[in-house]
Amino acid sequence: MTDRHILVAVGWPYANGLQHLGHFAGAYLPPDVFARHHRIAGNRVLMVSGADSHGTPITVKADADGVTPAEVVEHYLPLMHEQWDALGIDFDLFTSTMTETHREVTWEMFRGLHDAGMIVAHESEQYYDPERERFLPDRYVEGTCPHCGYEAARGDQCDNCGRTLDPTDLLDPRSTLSEATPVLRTTNHWFLDLPVVGEELAEWLEEREGWRPHVINWARGFVGGLHGRAITRDLDWGVPIPPELDTLGEGKRIYVWFEAVIGYLSAAQEWAASTDDPQAWRRWWNDDAESYYFVGKDNIPFHSVFWPAQLMGYNRSGRDRPLNLPTDVPANQYVTFKGEKASKSRGIGTPILDYLDTFSVDQLRFAVARHLPEFTDADITFDDLVKVANDELANDWGNLVNRVMTMARTHDDGTVPAPGPLDQVDHDLLAEVDACLVAVGDAIERVELRAALQEALALARATNVYLNAREPWKTKKTDLERTGTTLWAALQAIGAGTVAFAPYTPFSVDRIRGWLGLGPVLEGGWTRPEVVAGTPLGDSEVLFPKLEAPEA
Questions:
Q1: Residue 419 zone, left/alpha/beta (φ > 0; ψ -120 to 50; rest)
Q2: With helix as H, strand as E and coil as C, how does 181-233 read?
Q3: Is the pTM here over 0.70, yes or no?
Q4: What is the mean pLDDT of each run of 10 residues along the chain (552 residues)?
Q5: H/E run at residue 24
Q6: Are 499 and 529 in contact (CB under 8 A)?
Q7: Cβ pair 447, 292 in contact under 8 A
C-alpha cells in the first residue's frame, strides 16, 4: 500500500429517477475505472457520491406524483444502490444530502465563509408566480435561451448550449407550475461574494496543468466575470440556514448549487464516522492528498470555479485546517443520440439498466468505455455498442483467453505448461505486454480512459500476433517443448491482461484469474502476475457470447 491518498469525487445524481447511458458514460463509469486502477496499484482510494436530494427536479417530481420531496428521495435511493451494484460501480459510500452529517458540514462551510466575509446579505429580485402566489426556484422558470435561442431553457442552465443562466436571463419566461408569465418581486437573500477570491482563483486556475482543454478554458474564461451569486432561495425544501444566520425572513433554504458540492466533504466525514477513526476523512482533504471530480460538461462551473472558491473562502476563515482544492476536474463532454444530447428531463436516452437485457455488465462497461466523450461529444447507437463488444472485446480478448486456455489444458495434464528456454520472440512478447501494462496505467493516471483501454487491447492483439506466428496448434505435433513454452508465454500475457482489463471488465477478470490460479487482482499490484507452471487450470468457458442488436 502506498501513501498516495486519492479522493474520487463523483457527481451527485438527482434522486428523481435512475440514470441513462449519457449519465453512465459521462460521470459514473469513468470514476469507477479510475478508482479500480488506483486500488490495484495500492493507492488509498476513497470514492464517494450520493443522491442530490434538494434540487428542484426533486420538488418537480414530488409535485407531479402528489408526494413529498422526502418520499421521492426515499423511493429512489435504494434503487440507485441496486443500480450501482448491477453496473459494478464500487463506491466506498453512496449516501444522500438528506443526512444529519451533510446538514452539519454544510452549516460549517456556511459559517466559515461568513466569517471570511464571503457571505453577505443583499436585496434581489426573484421571479414570482402571480397565479400560484409563490416564488419560483430556477428550474420552475423556463424560457428562451438568450445565447442560442433554445426555447425550453431552464432558469439555471440551457440544456442545448450548456450555458449557466439566471432566471432573469431568459427571454419570454414562463412558470412551469401555471404557464403564467412570472413577475419580479423583491426579496432578501444571502450571496456568495465570489470576487473576494477572484484574484486567488484566477492565479490558481492559471497554474493548473493537464486539465482537459474544454474544462480549463471555460473556467479561466468565466473567472473574468465573477459576481456575487445567491446561495439561498425562498423554498420550503432544502438544507436550513444556520440558526444564528437565519435572519432574512421566513421560508428560506440554502440553495442546492451551494450545498450539493459540499456533499463530497460531508460524504467523506460520514464514511469516516463508520470506521474506527472518525477523523480518517482528513487524509483525503489535506495538501498531500489528490482529488479528482468526475462530472459531465454541464457541471464544469460548479466544480472548477464555484467549489474551489468555496474552499478558498473557507480556508481563509481559519476555522479548521485548510481543505485541499481539486487536483483535476476531468469533466466529460456530452453523449448524444442521433445528434441530441442525452437528457432524462427531455426523455432522450434509454435507461442504462435496460441495456443489461442485451449486454453482460462487462460487455456494457467495455463498449461504453470505448466511446467515452472525453474531449468531444460522442454520438452512440445501440449498434455501435454491439459492434465493439463483438469485434474487440469478444474477438481480440475473449477469444484469446478461450483458445489459449483450451490448448493449455489439453497440452499436458491440465496444468500450466513448464517452459523450455525462451528465445528472443518470447522475450519480445513479454516485454511488449509489460510495456502495454505500463501504458494503460499511465493513461489512466492522466484520466485518458479511452486511450488506456486501447493499450489494453494492444496487449491482447500482440499476444494474438505472437500465437499466429508460433502456431502452437501445429508445433504440438512436432515439438512439445516449443509448444509448452509458447502456451506458457501466452498465459503470462493473459495474466498481464487481467490487470490491464480489470478496471473495465472486473467480473470476467475475476473468472479468468480463477482459471489461472491467480489471487484477487487487488492483491497483486499494477504489474504482470506470474502464472506458475504446474498450476491446475480451471475449466474455462466462453466469456463474451456474440451479441445481436434487437430489431427496432
A1: beta
A2: CCEEEEEEEEEECHHHHHHHHHHHHHCCCCCCHHHHHHHHHHHCCCCCEECEE
A3: yes
A4: 95 92 95 98 98 89 92 96 97 98 98 97 90 85 94 87 85 92 94 97 97 96 90 92 95 94 98 97 97 95 97 96 97 81 55 94 98 92 94 98 96 93 98 98 98 98 98 95 98 98 98 97 95 96 89 56
A5: none
A6: yes
A7: yes
